[in-house]
């Protein structure tokens, strides 16, 4: 009987090994299909006719440098803290079946991975960009890596300002020049606002960065960057990016009333806050209305611009709307409180999620941080800009801000001023709790 049990156990083990080998060969064959190959070697930014400059202060890293010790699973493209069995099926190579055995040990030695945040600054956007970075630093938990694309004349100002920030060992930054493909640089530079279309080329420049949060300069974080970063783990196997709708109320929507080109969903999407799984973006072949052949990211941008440049108003954002109109399965849509703009309150409150939970990310487009048209937005901007790191957040930020917000109740946005501090209050409370625990 014992001999029979041993033979049965041996057969079972051989069968399991055969099954594992079959899975690995299947994964290998899938990787060799179009769009399923391993990521090619990173291209240096100079391929776009530019150069890179590493910042100082926070031990700034070289551009495009990937995470050190990224494990044996080279194509992992969500986040290392997700369990292996929760990852979509298309993020790993043939050896990833074996990775589950090593993932826990990796996490014990790499407890927190960096969050990559990119911004593009041109013209008079230095102060606004620095204020955005300050808001990201205040509440975030995991280490941050800033990728700052700026005109050459702004680099020294960025370095001198950022090097004076306290960083507590959790922040690095890299400065980059504004770079476009050399054969069409002039055309991209004049699209919409100066430098705005730079964001379209981030997956091609930062070739070794797996995932990235891009934000406009007029963004303010009212809760940790970690929380929007966590949406990467909610992507299904087809989703490559996440954005918020352009409008909640179709009656005041721009795209559904005026657009002369395709756009995503009912009211379009806003690209001021854009979370990207760039590994997936680089791999994907996109459906389009120019050719029956699907095109990759680097192949589709210029043809899209040539076809629609006379019909687009908002530049690169319009191109993204066209792209995701044809590939709606590739977009994860997050709620409006993650990209709260004046449109959500100047005609009456129309972001229900913000009314219930508060504003998570404030987007001061229309220049509202710098004029008196929307004093509620300007009050939040001034409060964060003037806050000194290390000061008590309640007495130096929250209470003075609430007093200023009460003065704006004569405006539509001021009437709902509590949504501007509801989440901020929680973020300050949570930060105090984390500090008290050491």
Indicate the topology.
Elements: H1 2-31, H2 100-109, E1 115-121, H3 126-139, E2 144-150, H4 155-162, E3 171-176, H5 185-189, H6 202-205, E4 211-215, E5 219-221, H7 225-229, E6 241-245, H8 255-258, E7 269-277, H9 278-283, H10 297-308, H11 316-326, E8 331-333, H12 352-357, E9 361-363, H13 375-386, H14 393-406, H15 412-415, H16 418-436
Parallel strand pairs: 1-2, 1-4, 2-3, 6-8
Antiparallel strand pairs: 4-7, 5-9, 6-7
Give structural notes.
Belongs to the glycosyltransferase 8 family. Glycosyltransferase which elongates the O-linked glucose attached to EGF-like repeats in the extracellular domain of Notch proteins by catalyzing the addition of xylose. It catalyses: 3-O-(beta-D-glucosyl)-L-seryl-[EGF-like domain protein] + UDP-alpha-D-xylose = 3-O-[alpha-D-xylosyl-(1->3)-beta-D-glucosyl]-L-seryl-[EGF-like domain protein] + UDP + H(+). Its EC number is 2.4.2.42. Keywords: Glycoprotein, Glycosyltransferase, Membrane, Signal-anchor, Transferase, Transmembrane, Transmembrane helix. With 438 residues, the chain is an alpha/beta fold. It has two domains: 115-334, Spore Coat Polysaccharide Biosynthesis Protein SpsA, Chain A, CATH 3.90.550.10; 342-436, no CATH class. It is built from 16 helices and nine strands. It has a seven-stranded mixed β-sheet, sandwiched between helices. Strand 1 (115-121), helix 3 and strand 2 (144-150) form a beta-alpha-beta unit. Helix 13 runs antiparallel to helix 14 (393-406) and helix 14 (393-406) runs antiparallel to helix 16. The longest helix has 30 residues, at 2-31. The radius of gyration is 23 Å and the shape is globular. 41% of the residues are buried.
